[in-house]
Amino acid sequence: MLFRQLYDQETSTYTYLLADEDSKEAVIIDSVLEQVERDQKLIKELQLNLKYILETHVHADHITGATELKKSFPNAKTIVHSKGGVECADIHSTDGMEIKFGKYYLKVLSTPGHTNGCVSYYTEGMVFTGDALLIRGCGRTDFQQGDPSKLYDSITQKIFTLPDNTLVYPGHDYKGFTCSSVWEEKKYNPRLANKTKDEFILIMNNLNLPYPKKIQESVPANLKCGNIKLSDA
Ligand code: FE2
Asked: Which residues surround ligand 1, an ion (CB under 5 A)?
């Protein structure tokens, strides 16, 4: 499988490009508006046929590049979970749905808790966890329908039940990590390793984090598939 991990420095966001080298069919996960030119150029240089533009959730810290990407790849379809509230998405995914590109697929795992519509995407050997599970951390649960109890269940019952050697590719990293594994996070994630659900909830309810800088503009724009003109209206 062709695999690229791309990074937006300003928001510490990872964008992932996956493709089947034979058929050239490709998917992109969590694009960032400011990086669309980079991604369009790369997809064209690699001679890929972008089939799907996926989101792990409605982001609060950056605007998706979905609408801009579609200008270059008009056949690409946007996919957001049905509980994300993104009516403009071409496809609303549900738990267990398989997204096929060439001989590969990504399976949608509904992993709510950071937001209601959060998903992880699993393919053999890799899981893209968005902001549900981060490396040695997890997504916050203090806005956008955040719910630490749901997040605990999503991580422990959906992500931690994948094979131990599954590589974890998160939606962000703020410390320079690029990937982890299910085994590693079960063993070393300070919010989850040997923690009960009540202990996890207590940790999550006492993080006292500042709001993301771009939340006011990002959430409405992402509910419009990253179409800034519509979100301003
Ligand atoms: Fe998020």
From this structure: 59, 131
